[in-house]
Each structure stands twice: as structure tokens, then as C-alpha cells.
Amino acid sequence: MASVELHEVRKAFGALEVIHGVSLHIEDGEFVALVGPSGCGKSTLLRMIAGLEDISGGEIIIDDAVVNDLTPRERNIAMVFQSYALYPHMTVAENMGFNLRLSGASKAEIAERVNEAARMLDLLPLMERKPAQLSGGQRQRVAMGRAIVRNPAVFLFDEPLSNLDAKLRVQMRSEIKTLHQKVKTTSIYVTHDQIEAMTLADRIVVLNQGRVEQQGTPMELYKNPANLFVAAFIGSPAMNLLDGTIDAEGGEAAVRLSDGTAIRIAQDRKVRRGQPIKIGLRPEHLSPGKAGTALTGQTLLVEPTGAQTHVIFDLAGQPVTAIVDGEYPQRHGSLFQASIAAEQVHVFDRESGVAL
Amino acid sequence: MTDIASSPPIDAATAPGSGQRLRATTQIYMYVALILVAIIVVVPLISTALGGFKTLSDLRGNPFGMPTEWQWSNYGDIIVSQRYWLQMGNSLVIAVLTVFLTLAFGAMAAFCFAHIRFFGSDYLLNYFLIGLMFPAATAILPLYIRIRDLGLVDTYWGVVLPQVAFGTGMSIMLFRNYFRNLPSELFDAAFVDGCGYMRFFWHITLPLSRPIIATVGIISFVGSWNSYILPLIMLNSESRYPWPLGIMIYRGEFNTEWQLVLAFITLTILPTIIVFFLAQKHIIAGLTAGAVKS
């Protein structure tokens, strides 16, 4: 196991810089998720840590040693790929033992370590099969087994669940978490799926256009997004973002929407009267009824998901999603009234997008 | 109730069943074209094989029909002759050496062109590919001088080396296209596992390249097996002649025994046809590799 540190790491393809001086510290044994939309540079950053991509500037330190010029093998890392990247002509056992074979381990040692990893991942009955004879989930487990066998200092996961169907993805997510709890190896996990990041990671790093937007525990990011990008990215369904202006309502700071609706906000927000802002309302914080600020609008869409129902209603000419109990009787076209507590209203500067 | 009279008229092109009719017509044309191509390929082969069973006069009077009298001795005499087996052996040695070297050089060079960018790599690749435009026959005189200077005239190598040189461009092109279409994640995974370029080539690329190896192998085997001009120029001793030169024995100054030539050709092309049928699946897979996303 090892800590991983990035100091002002940069990557440029010719004149185009795609990673703009990223600095991170990942503790020994920590599980960190790099999240962001497609093209934000998260996979490039992971490949730079792996040694599969040269870095244009900065330093990558693994276990207190600068590894900028070391090969992936010398960095003592293992990587799980989105497409599994299993060798099609080798059996499961050969795939898992290939790296040990290359390092000159004895046949007995290879067999012992491969079997140990296979037992951990429930792969023993599949050892003589070729990848083509395995299901997607089994292939991904083999890919993880291949990584475990070498007992690396750092695990790198590059969107490992993206090719699986929804049900298998949930199952494999649990397996990855269980695996990390067992082996406690430092892990860096790249995903564009914020649910995966929230459920798996000790800490999430949100990337956008090659820059770190915010990092913190999943709940820190969820509760206190630093800016509009993080606010919109973390949470499912996404946070509702509405334009408004700071005003006063009953002597307290509030946001006035375009239709005149006033929404009270926490009094410690650093805002000034007349300031153009955006407010963020999490769908799960909009509860039906009149407990806080009442927000009323016509129901545009009702989406039952079983335990919960998503009600999309019109508020000041903008669609707003609220999550209500699955049994809640709401019909398309009828009036929907929700309320939200002032402390749960997120406020962002409309120009800079920074949380206020 | 639906008012049929007010319904829009059905366009003949979009009417149900018109699609099937169009497909059926296309298939008929396709089959006619394929049958024509098959006839063009098969008729000379069958005529050659049948011609080997005829007498010379029968062959002249009836070149495409069945033999009036089956002359089994035409084939029998060739098969029992020592010269036939010697020439087949020579052809085999030259073809195997050509195939092995073409595969080795072609695969290694193509791997570099597919995975490693180095100064001038594009120019070097184009230099090899330009070789595709020149058949060996066009350079026969300078080739002979070079082979003579190397002291390789009247040796197998005098035929093998030019054949390898002229086959390398094609093999590089086919191998390179195939290697570039192998998933890049395999390269990444192998690199993380501790492979360098050599190990990746040996442990991952080659085992996954059987279709293209079969394709290039067969193409260079057939090219070498049928080669006539190069052996004719480079080889002097009859004991080193491959089979295409063996045909010359049946050509006299005033008369050619065509029935024996045809029997000889039939017997010598048989091995390549058998090899082709055995490797057919791999050859097609190799030639179409990368055409569609897998």
C-alpha cells in the first residue's frame, strides 16, 4: 500500500493543454473517485498516474518516490480497464498469472497467488475458461483478479463498470467495495457516474476541463457544493437551478424569482440586495406541503419509480423536479405545492457560479 | 370505421412486399454474377485437369471436352518420376523459406509501424509500400547482378531473398492494418503487467494474429510456388529447379507435349489448392480484419 501525491501535474497534446496543474494527496489505503463529464481529463489523469501517458509538467509521487519516468510495472500499480482488456487467447488462470509469469515467479507461487485471488472473487470454477466464454460480470471479476494477484501498491480503476448492465453494475459496485474493505489497497477510481463515486469513495474529486472543481467526502460535496458545476453534477436527479435576485421578505434575506415568488434563504449567506444569483434546490428537499417556503406550480410530468415518484412542476416558468413518496397521489396538470427549508436552499453567484 | 376511399394511395416503392421483391431480384443478379466468376475460375482448372488425361491429338481436337480415351499413364509417369518429387521438394524448400522470412520480417516491421512513432516512420513505411508497385520481373537485371555479387546465384537463397524483399511491402501493409485494429487496451494492460514492446509482440500480438499470419503466409506461399522468372534467371542446375521450370522438360524444339504439361501443372497446383481450402477461413478473416467494429 502507498500514498499517492500529484504536484501541479499538467498534460498537453501539442499546444492544447488538457490537464491544468492538478494537485492531489491520496492517503495510504484511501479510496478516491475522480468524477466529471466526458472529456474532463479524468481518464487521462489516471493514465498519467499509471504511466501509460507521459506528463508534460509536475510530479507524481507514489510511496514517497517520484515516478514520473518509471514504467507502469516499476510504479507497482495495477489497473482495471473499462473494456476488461483480458487477453483473449489465455485462460482465466493464465490471464491472472501473466504478470507474475513476466516477473519470473515460480509456477508454484503463481498457482498459489492466482488461486488465492480466484477464491476471493469466486472465480475458481472458471479458471480454465477463455474470456469469450465468460459473462460481462465474470470478465470484470477476472480483470480485478488480475490486478489483485500482483499485490500492487495502488489500484487504478478506469470506468470498470460502464460496460455492464444496470443490475450487474450495482452488484459489481458492492463487490468492489467489499474487495477494498478486505485488501485496503489505495484505490483511484475514475467514473462519470456520480452514484458510483458517492457509494464507493472515501473522497471524491470533481474534475472539469482538466481542473479540480472541488474535492471532499461524498456528503461534503452533496451538502456544500463549492460551485454550480459541482452542484449540478452531484446528486440524482440533478439539483434544480433557478435564476433569481436577492431581496428581503419579512425582514429576512430571500430570493425573488421572475414571477415574484420569494424563497427564504439562510441568513448567513454572503449576499447583497439586488444581486443576481442562481438558487439550487435538491429534488429530495422539496417536500409536498407548506412547512417552509411554499412553492406552487402546475404539474408538468409525473414519473413513478416505485418507492418514489418524481414530480416535475412549473415554477416561475422553469421546470422543477421534486421527489415525493411513491404513494403520493399527484396527477399531470394538477397544482403541486412543495416547500423547502431556508437552510436547504443553495445560493450561487450567477456570474462566477461560486457558492455564496 | 376507416374510410378506405379517403386513405392516401399506397406508394408502390413502399408497398408491403416490394422490399422483399427488390432483395430477391438483387440476389438473382448476385448469383448470376457469382456463377459467371466461378465459371471463369473453375473451367480452366477442370480443363487443365482433364487435358492431362488426353492424348495430344485428342487435346488439339477437343480441348474442353471429356477425354475420348483416359490416359492415366500421363499422371502415373509423372508421379513415379524422380524429377517430379525433386522439383516439388525444391519448390517446397524455397516456398517455406520465403514464407517464414516474409512473415518474420513483415510482422516485426509492421508492429513497429503500428505502435512506435519514430523520426521518419511515415516515410519509411511509404518506402516499403512503394515496393508494392514493382513486380520482381521489372528489376530482374539489377537483381541478378546483386545476387551474383553476393555469390548466391544457383542457390535457393538467390530466389528466396528477392521474393522476401518483394513480398515484404504487401505483408507489412496487411500486418500493420491488423495490428492497429487490435484493442489498444490490450497494449495498456500488457504494459501494466510488465510487457515491453518485444514481450507484447511475442506474448499478445502474435497469438492474436493467426488469421493475418495465415493470410500473408498463403499469399507468399502461392507467389513463391508459382514463381517462374526468378528461378529461371537465378538457378542454373536442374537439380535445384522448382516445378515451374520442370515444365520446360516437356517443351521440345519442334513439339510440346501439352497433355503432359497439363498433367504436371495439375499435380503441382494441387498442394496449394489443398492448403488454400484448409486455411480459407483464416484468409478471409485476415483480409477483412478491421472492416467492421468488433
Element layout with pairings:
The complex is a heterodimer of chains A (356) and B (294).
Chain A: E1 4-13, E2 16-26, E3 31-35, H1 42-50, E4 57-62, E5 65-66, E6 77-80, H2 92-102, H3 107-120, H4 136-149, E7 154-158, H5 166-183, E8 186-191, H6 194-200, E9 203-208, E10 211-216, H7 218-223, H8 228-233, E11 240-249, E12 252-256, E13 262-264, E14 276-281, E15 287-288, E16 293-304, E17 308-315, E18 318-325, E19 335-340, E20 346-349
Parallel strand pairs in A: 3-8, 3-9, 6-7, 7-8
Antiparallel strand pairs in A: 1-2, 1-4, 4-5, 9-10, 11-12, 11-14, 12-13, 14-20, 15-19, 16-17, 16-19, 17-18
Helix pairs in contact in A: 2-3, 2-4, 3-4
Chain B: H1 18-51, H2 56-61, H3 72-80, H4 82-115, H5 121-130, H6 140-149, H7 156-180, H8 184-193, H9 197-205, H10 210-225, H11 229-234, H12 243-246, H13 258-287
- Overall shape of chain B: it is globular
What is the name of the CATH superfamily of the largest domain in chain B? Answer: MetI-like
Q: Averaged pLDDT of chain B, please?
A: 85
Cα distance spanning the termini of chain A: 39 Å
Order of helices and strands of chain B: HHHHHHHHHHHHH
The CATH class designation of the largest domain in chain A is: Alpha Beta
Give the helix/strand class of chain A. Answer: alpha+beta
Distance between the ends of chain B: 50 Å
CATH fold node name of the largest domain in chain A = Rossmann fold
Count up the domains of chain B: 2
Number of strands of chain B: 0
Give the percentage of residues in beta strands of chain A: 35-45%
Largest interface: A-B, 24 and 16 residues
Low-confidence stretches of chain B: 1-7, 290-294
Give helix % range of chain B.
55-70%
Shape of chain A: elongated
Major sheet summary line of chain A = 6 strands, mixed
Q: Per DSSP, what share of the residues of chain B sits in E-state strands of 2 or more residues?
A: under 5%
Number of distinct beta strands of chain A? 20
SSE series of chain A: EEEHEEEHHHEHEHEEHHEEEEEEEEEE
